[in-house]
Amino acid sequence: MTDATYPQYRIISARFLKPDTAERLLNRIVEIGGIRRMSINGPSIPATVPYGPARGKPNPHPDRKVIHIGDQELQLRVQVGTILLELEDESPASAMKEACDEVFGDLGFSYTFQQGRYMKTQPTMSDYAKYGPDADTMVLGLVDPKRKDRFTVVQGR
Amino acid sequence: MAYKPQYGPGTTQVAENRRKQMNPEYKLEKMRDITDEDVVLILGHRAPGSAYPTAHPPLAEQQEPDCPIRKIVAATEGAKAGDRVRYIQFADSMFNAPSQPYQRTYTECYRFRGIDPGTLSGRQIVECRERDLEKYSKELIETEMFDPARIGIRGATVHGHSLRLAEDGMMFDMLQRCVLGEDGVVRYVKDQIGEPLDRAVEVGKPLDENWLKAHSTIYHSLVGTAYRDDAEYVEYVQRIHSLRTKYGFMPKEE
């Protein structure tokens, strides 16, 4: 991990977002640029029923769908509730807040835009013990580095 | 002097709603119509129209042991017929759902017979004989104890009661058993354990925010009535807490 400290932000909506709204919001944010890392959080929507008598059966869910962010397709696996951002510097933050104001303006519920520490900036002792010295530091603390599917790289404008 | 139950303390609307639901003499307001077949479909325990599978022969066909309790307690219809024991489980959103797990258990114990409720933080399950269950379920779904958006009928994977609501006001459901249609009507597309239904089951339109706030049995300082606003309720809980703590030391009069 680099020595520099990058500013981190999070956007929390008062209600969970539908995939279309999440797509609109994320596209507005990505257009502004200056993002190093981004993570979309929320409760999981599994592809199959995880437990109970119907365990293992397919779980068709209208909100588990592919959205397009920038030039990339992204399979949503969660109902979007929180967006974590790590920016190159603080300059795009105000434009992002304005983009949020615009998107949430028509939705009828509020959101919060906060600056703080929301992602790991360096591997912890347990990360080292679990994943070894070669773990990809860009995704540490955001996703399980042992997952087979990789994170999505959204190219600039 | 005959004992007259008070059902619960409190001076707020929430406390009043709790008492109303628990009081079997209060007739719960009917909000929607659900057919018997719809209830059977949502429960998912048997195919609609099929006979009730049995766990034992009907009571009339078997010799019952000479038991004083059996002479006092009349068997329910389901027990008489020897039905299996089956369940319905509800998850209630903290955002002003009309009922909540503890409330459900109290209410059912006052209103229904032959039940075995299980109370958890975000969900409540009630088990009983199958044909009794269908009757009770219908009552629980049709009356003011149910809201299509804030309450889910969920046999498994119940997560969602303490989460934010979705954009359209529905409680989060990992399995999306019920869907809010464009016409504003909520339909169950899966049964309570998440298996797709052959046809969607309508459970009516979600109730509006003001109605929910006026009929909720949950204290919530952000979206409804704050618990601390009900001084009588707080005093009662503090009294119980204090008494049980003191009793933990087994006080003895000298």
From TrEMBL, chain A:
Keyword set, alphabetical order: Methanogenesis
User: Looking at the Swiss-Prot or TrEMBL record, what is one Pfam family this protein matches?
Assistant: MCR_D
InterPro entries, alphabetized: Me_CoM_Rdtase_D (IPR003901)
Full protein name: Methyl-coenzyme M reductase operon protein D
UniProtKB/TrEMBL annotation, chain B:
Q: Which GO terms describe its molecular function?
A: coenzyme-B sulfoethylthiotransferase activity
State which pathway it belongs to: One-carbon metabolism; methyl-coenzyme M reduction; methane from methyl-coenzyme M: step 1/1
Sorted UniProt keywords:
Methanogenesis, Transferase
The record's subunit annotation is: MCR is a hexamer of two alpha, two beta, and two gamma chains, forming a dimer of heterotrimers. Hexamer of two alpha, two beta, and two gamma chains.
Q: Which organism is it from?
A: Methanoculleus frigidifontis
Q: Does the keyword Acetylation apply?
A: no
Q: Where is this region: Disordered?
A: 1-23
Please report the name of this protein according to its UniProt entry. Methyl-coenzyme M reductase subunit gamma
Q: Which NCBIfam families match?
A: met_CoM_red_gam
Class of this enzyme? transferase
Write down the required cofactor(s).
Answer: coenzyme F430
What is the reaction catalyzed? Answer: coenzyme B + methyl-coenzyme M = methane + coenzyme M-coenzyme B heterodisulfide
Pfam families named among the record's database cross-references: MCR_gamma
Q: Which domain of life is it from?
A: Archaea
| Protein family (similarity comment) | Belongs to the methyl-coenzyme M reductase gamma subunit family.
Q: Is RNA-binding among this UniProt entry's keywords?
A: no
E.C. number: 2.8.4.1
